[in-house]
Structure to design on (692 residues):
DNA sequence: CTGTTAGCGCATTCAA
DNA sequence: TTGAATGCGCTAACAG
């Protein structure tokens, strides 16, 4: 990369000081703590700033104060509402705390460890989602003295972790489906793909056990629409038999449900379908998809907040912080229609 | 804010140099241009870096090289796929070009101008969406010597602008609906809300004119689901009469369509509905929503790329760059079912 | 209330 | 191929 231009207009704290007839210390003061500067001087400085179009170079400040005032966030990608909401929460809270957010999307990176190293260079702390960044990379950041929080990932000593509740809501949801009289439930999605999912499967198992019923092995497929469609096709050929599907997320649930319906089957009469995440589509399809709403924005906010506290010298929290989730009943589970439709999330 | 901890583990280029028994210049070289350093020395330095967990402080580098190697992106928010895709494209391209991306979400900020000023402080260039940031703020950044590109906004001299094509695809779409024999079309959404929307309404008008028909005035409502629902209610009372609705975006189209259907009306038999954006839900509802797909990721990529070129000394492009869009026909416009469903976007 | 001064950590001449 | 020296722009004592 050839970079020709210099940063900024060229106006520095020096030129501003000169223009205003004061010292650079005074200029710095009117920017940091205006109240300690005499009104007259302050105004002269502000005028100089204005006429010179002075924009401070944050790097110089960062160097002097010895921190970046920025948090990094590593997410896999942004398709679907999940990560976007997480990011919104994170950014909002970070901004409230005066921190910039530098975003790194892992899926599009050919050399992620390198990208993470680079990122670590310009932030005070890092939030990473699940297991997107390899453990050694995380350790490097930690050893460099920068706090790391893991969102919806494996819990490990030394890194704070934040997650939504999964197991007990999964158990409730499964129990709910069982109460509808369903006998052959299938959990669709690979529990080993992410801690979140394994937690959900654990709940699935738990609900069966407490009724002394034997839970089926999970159907280990990935979480994209395509995977759901393919699975539905295999159901249509009789390869899988079930009267209820507990899907690892809504995308899966929706694609399966739609495929089955298009093939002439009825949801929930022939098979009930439930999912996870309460994406927008889940409110619009018919029957409405029963699902679990997670406080995704809250996860982001909490992450930003913890990062800031850790940077400010707070102690790392040794056990994972778990945020509650909420089951949203619609009709795909077998519940009767007629309830007022769940409102869009605020 | 009280910030106690210092950035980094304390390891600096000095401690690394000392540990490796070389000068800091050599350490700097093995990081910037390893090939100019003798293999032996290089290894010693790398070892030192490793054992000291050295992570460079980007601020110091930025200060020395006089640029930030970061681009700012200001978006209103991230609900819905539109901005998220834009951001994904932007981030991916920026990363390819070695630039970090600092994200600022406008909607959650109480003092946006201040936030923008702050942001300008730490980036070499800025991309802003539409009219989210006020003109004076944009001018400041520009005058400070930092390039700005506006995405899907008003075109102005001195700022580069990038947008998706709207008018001609709107004309085609409207024409398509007219061909289905619809007589009373309504454009739903406020054209003054954004340049994108006014372009779409212009196409709507154009299509009518070329058939010597008089276009109706636009229904000036906002673009959220709630607004659509409220509008649908007004249709149900007869306040608005139409046999086809050209909606400013999919969220509007979907909420209206669903409400009308829930009230017993048939789409498209009673009223055709079309939208804009091709969100995920549009594939899943029945009838499938006819809509216009925009190259949203492409907008983001292009913005990042132009920013980088501008920072590297490129000249600002005086006329707006317009990316093509594509009409996605499903059944809500009156087209017969049976076509293979449009695949998910890749 | 204001000015002087000494770093902050790194890149980059210029010599050797 | 390496080292010594200088400056990037700003903050924060410290003095006055």
């Amino acid at each position: 990369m050839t970079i020709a231009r210099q940063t900024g207009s060229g106006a520095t704290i020096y030129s501003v000081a000169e223009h205003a007839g004061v010292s650079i210390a005074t200029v710095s003061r009117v920017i940091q703590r205006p109240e300690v500067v005499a009104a007259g001087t302050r105004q002269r400085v502000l005028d100089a700033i204005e006429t010179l179009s002075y924009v401070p170079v944050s790097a110089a400040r960062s160097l002097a104060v010895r921190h970046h005032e920025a948090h990094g966030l590593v997410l896999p990608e942004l398709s679907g509402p999940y990560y976007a909401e997480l990011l919104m929460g994170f950014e909002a809270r970070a901004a409230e705390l005066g921190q910039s957010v530098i975003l790194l999307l892992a899926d599009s990176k050919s050399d992620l460890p390198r990208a993470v190293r680079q990122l670590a260079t310009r932030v005070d702390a890092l939030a990473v989602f699940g297991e997107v960044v390899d453990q050694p990379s995380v350790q490097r950041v930690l050893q460099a003295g920068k706090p790391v929080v893991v969102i919806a990932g494996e819990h490990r000593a030394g890194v704070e972790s934040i997650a939504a509740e999964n197991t007990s809501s999964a158990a409730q949801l499964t129990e709910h489906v069982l109460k509808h009289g369903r006998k052959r439930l299938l959990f669709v999605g690979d529990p080993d793909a992410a801690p979140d999912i394994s937690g959900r499967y654990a709940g699935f198992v738990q609900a069966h056990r407490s009724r002394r019923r034997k839970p089926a092995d999970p159907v280990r497929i990935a979480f994209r629409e395509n995977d759901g469609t393919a699975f539905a096709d295999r159901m249509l050929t009789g390869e899988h038999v079930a009267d209820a599907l507990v899907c690892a997320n809504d995308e899966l649930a929706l694609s399966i449900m739609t495929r089955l319906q298009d093939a002439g089957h009825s949801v929930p009469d022939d098979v009930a379908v439930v999912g996870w995440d309460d994406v927008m589509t889940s409110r619009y399809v018919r029957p409405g998809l029963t699902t679990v709403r997670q406080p995704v924005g809250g996860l982001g906010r909490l992450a930003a907040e913890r990062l800031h506290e850790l940077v400010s010298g707070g102690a790392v929290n040794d056990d994972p912080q778990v945020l509650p989730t909420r089951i949203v009943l619609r009709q795909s589970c077998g519940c009767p229609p007629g309830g007022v439709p769940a409102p869009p999330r605020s």
